[in-house]
Specification:
- This protein has a seven-stranded mixed beta sheet, with helices on both faces.
- It is globular and about 55 Å long.
- Helix 1 packs across helix 11.
- Strand 6, helix 7 and strand 7 form a beta-alpha-beta unit.
- With 251 residues, it is of the alpha/beta class.
- It contains eleven helices and seven strands.
- The structure holds adenosine-5'-triphosphate (ATP) and magnesium ion.
- The site of adenosine-5'-triphosphate has 19 residues, from helix 1 and helix 9.
- Adenosine-5'-triphosphate (ATP) binds next to helix 1 and helix 9.
């Protein structure tokens, strides 16, 4: 499975989901690669010390000799590797202007390492630009996190339109594995209303697992840990573990 985690809306839980879902996949003793495609590099920072990172996804996507293999580093967790990002990745779009294969760079680079990993998880930036399109072209599956908030569904039409465009030519097999409700507050009427609204729009696509709002999940990246080592008995750990099982079942 090559799983892209995308939603161009900022702060909806993409990175938190990428980190913890990848950690959960790796815990099941499957070799897992996380690709950080966000120039903010939050996923990278939660796995490795960015200052120790020599080459990053910008090099992987622009320097053919480097490729993906040239940037992958092990994380501290067994079975989990990371292809790191740096702020320089923000220059990719300008660098690839006019290149005919600009949308296919990640797919092409992944081909040569794909067989070495059971799963690949791609964290996308909060845009529908070239980086996210590269992820959608390379992916077999898409997971859409949606924050349980009043404006939750704003922008999802644009995301689905981009998915349709990608399917048309570049990646007809791309499946939406599911829509994940994140940062949910079960206790409020608003929380329940939003959940019902997301279900009305996405129906069966919504994962049964819901990620509730949790201080532990918010804190864990600061300690460079996944929720499974930072707070193994927390609700967040149980939820992301359940999500992992649901993703595997659906995929
Ligand atoms: P961006 O669009 O900037 O890349 P994102 O979609 O990757 O953001 P995250 O970085 O995962 O979103 O989450 C945004 C913020 O919300 C972070 O501070 C994160 O720690 C926090 N957060 C994520 N999930 C939860 C949760 N279930 N409960 C509480 N806080 C959360
Ligand atoms: Mg992020």
């Amino acid at each position: 499975m090559i799983l892209a985690i995308a939603n161009q809306k900022g702060g909806v839980g993409k990175t938190t989901t990428a980190i913890n879902l990848a950690a959960a996949l790796a815990m099941r003793e499957r070799k897992t690669l996380v690709i950080d495609l966000d120039p903010q590099a939050n996923t990278t920072m939660s796995f490795v010390d960015v200052h120790g990172v020599e080459r990053n996804m910008f090099d992987a996507l622009t320097d053919e000799a480097c490729g993906l293999r040239g940037v992958i580093v092990p994380s501290r967790q067994p079975n989990l590797w990371i292809a790191p990002s740096r702020i320089s990745l923000a220059k990719l779009e300008a660098k690839l202007v006019g290149e005919l294969d600009a949308h296919f760079r990640l797919k092409d680079r992944l081909d040569s390492v794909r067989a070495e990993y059971a799963h690949v998880v791609i964290d996308c930036p909060p845009t529908l630009g070239l980086l996210t399109v590269n992820a959608l072209v390379a992916a077999t599956h898409l997971l859409i996190p949606i924050q349980s908030s009043y404006f939750a569904l704003e922008g999802t039409d644009d995301l689905l339109e981009t998915v349709e465009k990608v399917r048309l030519r570049a990646n007809p097999g791309l499946k939406i594995v599911g829509v994940l409700i994140t940062m949910h507050d079960r206790r409020t009427a608003l929380g329940r209303d939003i959940k019902a609204q997301i279900h009305r729009v996405f129906g069966q696509k919504v994962f049964e697992t819901i990620i509730t709002k949790s201080v532990r999940l918010e804190e864990s990246p600061a300690y460079k840990e996944s929720i499974f080592t930072f707070a193994p008995d927390s609700s967040g750990a149980a939820e992301y573990y359940r999500l992992c099982e649901e993703v595997i079942d659906r995929a």
